[in-house]
């Protein structure tokens, strides 16, 4: 059993991976299979020059900078990109998976992130990119913690909805700690979350969506004797389904 007092009075640093959200990107080629393959290859080979050449002038410095943050945190990060069929007029969709690992204090921390990237093509350039369905976890428990994340992908404006992070196996006398909090899309990349004891075997929260359409981001952490899990989830706030 770990000492909960170590966490009670300090803010625990949590990488939110909000820097995976790049809201206004533009790529200077039409969307073809070869281009998607080249983009995936450039990300995996850390070809920042390719990225700079394929984004608009106002983003060709910012995007490599944010990409470098990911690589600095997880040097062996791998990217997989797949084109999805889009039912939205004048919109294309890429499904992107990011995975990696690093060793901290002799413990392996595993990153897994999945999100959809929606965009339009204007004059041969990808324009007005939007992240959908972002879900990122970083965990060092070797997946020994049986945990379920029940967080919706989208909700109606102003509606109430539940966020449940459930530890599926009985904890008996084991003490766990955790917390969850909302963030804005343009908030800092690194946030602090104050850990509290969780007597109910997880995090169960009812909240209300903002009154205007947009995106809401939740991040949280679970600390367990078998390890630690941090997570980030985006939720689309819509005015109709």
Task: List its salient traits.
14 strands, mainly beta, Immunoglobulin-like, 48% strand, globular, 241 residues, 3-stranded antiparallel β-sheet
CATH superfamily membership, which one?
A: Immunoglobulins
Q: End-to-end distance, in Å? A: 45 Å
The computed structural class is mainly beta
Supply the CATH architecture: Sandwich
H and E string? HEHHHEEEEEEEEEEEEE
Q: Could you say what the CATH topology is called?
A: Immunoglobulin-like
Shape: globular
Total number of beta strands:
14
What kind of assembly state do the chains in view correspond to?
single chain
Biggest β-sheet, characterized? 9 strands, mixed
Radius of gyration: 19 Å
Low-confidence stretches: 1-30
- The chain-level mean pLDDT equals 79
Query: What is the helix tally?
Result: 4
CATH class: Mainly Beta
Fold and architecture overview:
The chain is mainly beta and about 240 residues long. It has one domain: Immunoglobulin-like, CATH 2.60.40. About 15% of the residues lie in helices and about 50% in strands. It contains 4 helices and 14 strands. The strands form 3 sheets. Strands 2, 3, 4, 5, 7, 9, 11, 13 and 14 form a 9-stranded mixed sheet that branches. A 3-stranded antiparallel sheet has the order 6-8-12, with no helix packed on it. It is globular and about 55 Å long. About 25% of the residues are buried. Residues about 1-30 have low confidence and may be disordered.
